[in-house]
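Example record for the data management plan.
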Amino acid sequence: KITTKQLGDRGEQVVVDYLVESGHKIVARNYKTKLFEVDIISQKAQMLYFTEVKYRSDHDFGEALDFINKKKQQKMHLSVAGFMATHPEYADFRPTLAVAAVGKDFCLEEWFELDE
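Corresponding structural encoding:
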């Protein structure tokens, strides 16, 4: 039986493949500290994308964006601040929050920037 972690890893790989094909350089995967985790950090031009990946085996419980509530967005902003504070080499980059939805067939359903 496939574990939840394996499902998540496989879903994240789908997003990584998409981002690389779209011209992104992957900076980090599963970047963790005691306070936060970022699924994928990527760079394209002078932008630094902090992508939250949501895998859904079905839509009975809502769409990917439904799971990015105010509290989750606050945690995402905290992760951006923490990463930027500890990685001065990216000081000239504009950090941007993004969300990716991966369906049960491991196809990317959507990837989009979050409106601030």
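Summary line stored alongside the record: The first helix runs from residue 4 to 21.
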